[in-house]
Amino acid sequence: SYKQPHKLHMLYNYLIIGGGVAGVTAAEAIRGIDTQATIGVVSDEPYPLYSRVLLPNYLKNKIKREQVFLRTLQDFYEKNIDLILEQKVAGLDTQKQTVSLDNGKSIEYEKLLISSGGRAKPWGENSIQSLIYRLQTLDDADKLFADLGKIKKPMVIGGSFISLEFLEIFLLSKTIPTLLLDKAFYFSRLVEENGGKIIHKNFEKHGIKILTGDQVEYANLKTQGGAEVVTRLGHNLESDALAVGIGLKKNLEFLIGKIVLGQDSVRTNEFLETNQKNIWAAGDIAEFYDVILGKHRSVGNWTNSFLQGQKAGLNMAG
Fold it and tell me: Mean pLDDT across the stretch 123-136?
């Protein structure tokens, strides 16, 4: 129902790479100022804007699937914003001001916003991908939702906020997970050891088995189903679901050598402008200059992406 055709102009006054909250908010901010301009939003997903923050609530049966959506195709139509779905950006030519798509087509732009965000970091051998669960996209959530009833021995890997959601999702489905951490305690970057102990006691109260300071060495499919998981410290475990929360890999490949990058993001000034004329960046992909702290940094959360998308759109529209 989401795959109706969308317009594709060869030239946009404003072109936005990324259909997440930063990109869509920027497009709507621009439209609020410039009612006549052509605006295009390129997204590699098959859906209009939805809330990644609400995906865990969908999996916990707190909301229905349709409630994760924040915009419909009709919303884009009414605002005269072209939503170009299921198209990945393959290249950028800053001199010609063109963006090339992986379908071979190129689009010219007058002003460009990079809000391409990130994707879950690759993990695991190809042979066990059917047992691996992530929580970055709606398709990820749909896969886990469909399988929750048959998962009996889940393993959660990593000490991120997403891993915390995985733990609760499995507990609410009446399944006790095993937690594997490569650090000494959970949230080791945020809390000291005593705080970590409090978190671990709460996990253990709910029956969660915790293995710390360890990583998966390898995992093999078993003929009778599930996987045999061997850790670096020699633990031999069985699992039929490997829920991985180890962070994001920024979508930067098409920008290398074309634009100034920071540690793992697009570097901008305090107005979210890049070093290239007529190009801005916002959201998870932006390493912006923070005028309060006096340094560049990136912030990976929903509120920041929304606010930066809004400010980038206003700045792009003058």
Answer: 93
**Cα 265 to Cα 288: distance, rounded to the nearest angstrom:** 9
Tokens of 43: 């997204």
Beta-carbon contacts of residue 176 (< 8 Å; ≥ 6 apart): 170, 206, 207, 208, 209
Tokens of 125: 């051998």
Say if CB 124 and CB 291 are below 8 A apart.
no
Whose structure tokens read 């809000």?
A: 115
What strands, in cross-sheet order, belong to the sheet with 132-133? 132-133, 241-244, 154-157, 178-180, 209-211
Taking the whole predicted model, whether its pTM rises above 0.90 is answered as: yes
- The residue-averaged pLDDT of 265-272 equals 98
For residues 296 and 286, give the distance between their C-alpha atoms in angstroms, rounded to a whole number. 10
Per-residue buried b or exposed e for 186-220, using 16+ beta carbons within 10 Å of the residue's own CB: bbbeeeeeeebeebbeebeeeebeebbeeebeebe
- Give me 31's structure tokens: 């439209």
Q: How far apart are CA 253 and CA 52, in angstroms?
A: 23
Strand, helix or coil for residue 84: strand
Rounded to the nearest 10°, the torsion over CA 31, 33, 38, 42 is: -40
Partners of 98 in beta bridges:
93, 108
Six token digits for residue 106: 């190129």
Q: What is the pLDDT of residues 229-253, one digit of tens each?
A: 999 999 999 999 999 999 889 999 9
* Residue 230 phi, psi dihedral angles, 5° rounding: -115, 130
Give the whole-angstrom CA distance, residue 87 versus residue 18.
Answer: 10
Chain centroid to CA 129? 19
Contact 51/60 with Cβ under 8 angstroms? no
Check pLDDT > 50 for residue 89. yes
Task: State the Rg of the chain over Cα.
Answer: 21
